[in-house]
């Protein structure tokens, strides 16, 4: 089949209607919050704040409660990729010997630490000194502490070990072990069983040890009342988010996976304050208004899809429009609908640490495959999903390892599935023609399935 290269997602006959995704307007407020976060971080030194570099799960409430500034390594890499400014950092990492197959989040963040500012300033790094990307590269403050809290991903743990060495082994580092929930015991299940209870307490004890580490290196006593206050906003925001997601079982869906993708920052790494609650109140209100008026995230919605895999941050808007152009609404995904304070009711605001530990444990990749796939199937049934889109992120093995099992389960339950290769932060791995061809084939299969039914 011949595909003619054109601008935008219409490189195949099935993309000919030119429809664009009807993205939520309320998410623009989140963009302002993200920009404010980075602006405050870039000026942390001037504000007299200590800076923590951390990777992994959503532990910033512990930093916020102690008035620390924090750099989330994945968020920094995604930020650069979304602004198409990741290449200088990635090149610096590659020139130092870090292979392109290494997690591109890690490679980008490590590359940032390796950038020679003198070369950046005199224009010999391969980027002009007056290029806006160069200005961004100059701004990231160095760490006073490094904290790792990575579930499921060994690369994430090694990432911080590398960072520790890059800074001369002089920056104090603390590592939280978040063990896998294998689910092999007879009483094991989602949020239940001896394994669940034991590992919940194990992670909570480490979080308490982390607060003592923060006390030691900041010279200040940890304020647990302040942590409870911060978590009150996070918990309410998480509740509103889940309520808004549940409204999208409506047909047509008033919001899509791509709206939830751009809504991750508020429940992942932004400060826990009233802004988070206001943001998700606005998102929920807009979704309710769309339901009342019959407005969908995709015009003439015909297909409802599940997106499995990390997001390709270089291609968020591009992919949203691509699926809209074939009247397909991606209604849910593993990354958005099974992570990020997914069980807020577990958090007791009088003593939030155990509930926080439990939310960290239920990162979907942290479950044994039977339990994880069972939860995915529940979501697909709930949202009336017809097909699954498997983004095989080239450098994120932790997210892709189980995808063939997930796709097999989907097919056994009458859903079509496609695979396409891309990456979280390295745009060079994405091939548009490949996704076009496979999406076209899946649409044809779903249509044939409907005719047969």
Automatic annotation (TrEMBL):
GO terms for molecular function: iron-sulfur cluster binding; metal ion binding. Keywords: Iron, Iron-sulfur, Metal-binding. Transmembrane segments: none annotated. It holds the Pfam family HGD-D. The keyword Oxidoreductase does not apply. The keyword Iron-sulfur applies. Belongs to the FldB/FldC dehydratase alpha/beta subunit family. This is 2-hydroxyacyl-CoA dehydratase. It comes from Oleomonas cavernae.
């Amino acid at each position: 089949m011949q595909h003619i290269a054109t601008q935008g997602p219409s490189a195949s006959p099935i993309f000919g209607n030119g429809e664009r995704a009807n993205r939520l307007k309320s998410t623009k407020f989140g963009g302002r919050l993200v920009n404010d976060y980075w602006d405050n971080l870039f000026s942390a030194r001037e504000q007299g704040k200590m800076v923590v570099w951390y990777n992994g799960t959503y532990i910033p409430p512990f930093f916020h409660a102690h008035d620390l500034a924090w750099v989330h390594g994945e968020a920094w890499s995604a930020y650069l990729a979304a602004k198409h400014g990741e290449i200088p950092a990635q090149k610096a990492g590659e020139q130092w010997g870090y292979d392109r197959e290494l997690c591109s989040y890690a490679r980008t963040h490590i590359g940032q630490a390796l950038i020679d500012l003198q070369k950046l300033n005199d224009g010999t790094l391969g980027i002009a000194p007056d290029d806006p990307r160069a200005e961004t590269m100059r701004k990231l403050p160095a760490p006073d502490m490094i904290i790792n809290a990575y579930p499921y991903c060994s690369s994430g743990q090694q990432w911080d070990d590398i960072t520790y060495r890059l800074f001369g082994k002089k920056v104090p580092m603390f590592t939280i072990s978040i063990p896998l929930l294998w689910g092999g015991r007879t009483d094991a299940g989602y949020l239940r069983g001896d394994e669940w209870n034991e590992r919940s307490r194990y992670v909570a004890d480490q979080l308490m040890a982390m607060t003592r580490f923060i006390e030691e290196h900041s010279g200040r006593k940890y304020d647990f009342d302040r942590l409870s206050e911060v978590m009150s906003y996070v918990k309410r925001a998480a509740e509103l988010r889940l309520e808004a997601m549940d409204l999208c079982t409506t047909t047509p869906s008033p919001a899509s996976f791509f709206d939830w993708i751009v809504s991750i920052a508020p429940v992942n790494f932004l400060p826990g304050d009233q802004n988070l609650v206001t943001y998700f109140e606005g998102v929920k209100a807009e979704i309710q208004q769309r339901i009342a008026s019959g407005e969908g995230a995709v015009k003439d919605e015909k297909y409802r899809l599940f997106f499995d895999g990390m997001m390709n941050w270089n291609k968020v808007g591009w992919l949203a429009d691509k699926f809209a152009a074939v009247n397909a609404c991606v209604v849910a995904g593993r990354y958005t609908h099974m992570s990020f304070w997914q069980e807020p009711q577990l958090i007791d605001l009088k003593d939030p640490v155990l509930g926080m530990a439990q939310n960290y444990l239920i990162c979907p990749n942290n479950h044994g495959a039977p339990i994880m796939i069972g939860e995915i199937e529940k979501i697909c049934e709930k949202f009336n999903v017809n097909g699954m889109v498997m983004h095989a992120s080239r450098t994120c093995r932790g997210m892709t390892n189980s995808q063939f099992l997930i796709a097999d389960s989907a097919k056994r339950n009458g859903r079509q599935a496609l695979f396409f290769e891309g990456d979280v932060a390295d745009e060079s791995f994405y091939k548009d023609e490949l996704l076009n061809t496979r999406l076209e084939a899946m649409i044809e299969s779903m249509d044939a399935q409907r005719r047969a039914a």
